[in-house]
What we know:
The protein has helices at about 20-35, 65-80, 105-110, 135-150, 200-215, 250-255, 275-290, 325-335, 340-350, 380-385, and strands at about 5-15, 40-50, 50-60, 80, 85-90, 95-100, 120-125, 160-170, 175-185, 225-230, 245, 295-305, 315. The protein is of the alpha+beta class. Among the domains are: about 5-10 and about 135-235, GMP Synthetase, Chain A, domain 3, CATH 3.30.300.10; about 120-125 and about 270-385, GMP Synthetase, Chain A, domain 3. The strands form four sheets. A four-stranded mixed beta sheet has the order 1-8-9-10, with helices on one face. β4 (about 80) and β5 (about 85-90) form a beta hairpin.
Amino acid sequence: xxxxxxxxxxxxxxxxxxxxxxxxxxxxxxxxxxxxxxxxxxxxxxxxxxxxxxxxxxxxxxxxxxxxxxxxxxxxxxxxxxxxxxxxxxxxxxxxxxxxxxxxxxxxxxxxxxxxxxxxxxxxxxxxxxxxxxxxxxxxxxxxxxxxxxxxxxxxxxxxxxxxxxxxxxxxxxxxxxxxxxxxxxxxxxxxxxxxxxxxxxxxxxxxxxxxxxxxxxxxxxxxxxxxxxxxxxxxxxxxxxxxxxxxxxxxxxxxxxxxxxxxxxxxxxxxxxxxxxxxxxxxxxxxxxxxxxxxxxxxxxxxxxxxxxxxxxxxxxxxxxxxxxxxxxxxxxxxxxxxxxxxxxxxxxxxxxxxxxxxxxxxxxxxxxxxxxxxxxxxxxxxxxxxx
Length: 389
């Protein structure tokens, strides 16, 4: 663990952020396939810009998927229901450019092999109840609260697009206080001052009091700095101000930059794609190791090649916090976890339409029964095998 004082920063984005909108459309299509055809193969990508959504990729399935209406429902649910937000679910154009999966890929996947090559990381640590890094958990909770207050009409002036960022001060490896918080939310004109160039000080204060402070609690102090719509205003947001694409928020989706990332995105991919399923498995393994108190933190790296079931590589790094050696942990993992694609899908029950709700506010650290990779059900087995009480 690092010594002395240092700072770690993580960001999150709201469900109305253009990239997250695309993730949700892609996963809505995946869910609709899995409802009808658990053997369906999906690699769905979405692109959005002002007034236009393009859905593309490769899908092979016996199901009928109404791509255009599914996309409209996602946009509506997020809150893009009026042209003033830069996108209207009723009038936006939607193009469907989906085709079938390559038979060359299917040939290796059908026999139980991985759907691609690549490396995946999982992580857990003991600094939050969710066994996640504190900065990313706070960042997610801020944008989630921002969305809840918007939808509940507590802060009626907020729009769907938004971001958060949290910088946490650590001393000798432990989080001590929040150094700074960034809140950026799209809004309507009603909170602008007479000049029309800046949001009113009263609105800024209200956002801090109602969004930030209930989430941050005692970790925020008199020296915590707040940056709220720092340019002065955020009238133009969503796809009107920024294009969006599936898979561009991979660090937001995982651990907020605290550990390495293999580079593969999740949304729109069925669980034969190890980019998604093996990353979920790596989190499951790491979380159970930390929950079993075999280490205070644990990073898992897996590596696969297309068409082969067993991983090419398995790395465990507890950063010298383990009660047993990393080498012994590797042996325990191989003994008690099936790391083949079929084994992962079976263990985590991944052939279900559960993916839409993963597509915003992070794939990890969530208390939801459908997030099976968040279970800590191997704790007793690991403790016994490691001979640790």
